[in-house]
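Session log. Operator J.P. requested a structure for one protein chain; no other inputs attached. Running the standard single-chain path with token output.
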Amino acid sequence: MTSMSPSARPLLNRRLAEFGTTIFAEMSALAVRTGAINLGQGFPDTDGPEEVREAAVRALRDGRGNQYPPGPGVPELRTAVAAHQLRRYGLSFDPDTEVLVTAGATEAIAAALLALLEPGDEVVALEPYYDSYAACIAMAGGTRVPVTLRPGTADGEPAFRLDLDELRDAVTDRTRLLLLNTPHNPTGTVLTRDELAAVAELAVERDLLVVTDEVYEHLVFGTAEHVPIASFPGMRERTVTIGSAGKTYAFTGWKVGWVTAAPALLTAVRSAKQYLTYVASGPFQYAVAEALALPDSYLTAYRQDMEAKRDLLSAGLAEAGFGVYRPAGTYFVTTDVRPLGESDGFAFCRSLPERAGVVAVPNAVFYDHREEGAPFVRFAFCKRAPVLEEAVGRLKSLAG
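Structure written below.
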């Protein structure tokens, strides 16, 4: 019996050839190997509200969601998502035709891009970007066109800013859609109402679709506000809005996300989504429906807690000698390592566990223009305060 000879063609689809193991897997493995505090990957180290967890247990015991849930999501959750959008933003969506439940926001992004892109279509995305954006655009055969957020100031503080002229210049006759993320991971930038109005005008003028990742919608700090771009004139019928329970209720492992969009757009996204996971997270969907009905006092307390942790870590990083971009949203702090005499974020992050017992993520992995992100490093503050305090204590050794 002869063995099969290996194919001369690479096994991995050429569209994915540039994507290896994610940086999150690499740095989390490094944290385990060295015993370092993992401030790299963005997951909380405590569970969310007890009543929400108990709602999931109750659903399991009652046999709700233990078999395949409906393809679009359980009616209770779709109704709760629609009620949330109306209550928070004045956006009215029909739960039956304009809401789709997904396996987290990541599947929502994949389904939207696979559904809406043809090979050769250009996608303008804000750089740095969540890593799955690039992979999903590639799988759809699209071409990503990054518009770089660059260091500047906002309200007198260091911040990454969008150049609206650069955004406008990036749009060509081949542009199919704009891929937005606000509050923005990893920089912590929250696009202002005026900036979003300008983006909306551009989308209407050039007849572009918009896919907007708003999973950090409830994590905005200080004077920043989250404004859905779907609420601007001419945008509702061209916008796919993505939300998620993981970041708001601290149950990231449940993988419950959703899409809201006009019927034609939602039908397109659902057509792709049904061939990805088909359905997922049955009992958790019922629990998230209850979570979305929690009083606003929960969101206020959650935001205040995260803001205090942001300030704790930001102050500690500054004392350790980093240049700090204190975020207006999300639960990540971007830092500049050049004040520490460093210039290569990759090398810095790979040596940091041994040097200081802390793991972070190099922002360059989120850039096409790697040189733009080379000196920047991201830390997550969605951890217990004692863990952050210990990490800050360790990082201060860098200053000496």
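Operator note: DSSP finds 14 helices and 15 strands in the chain.
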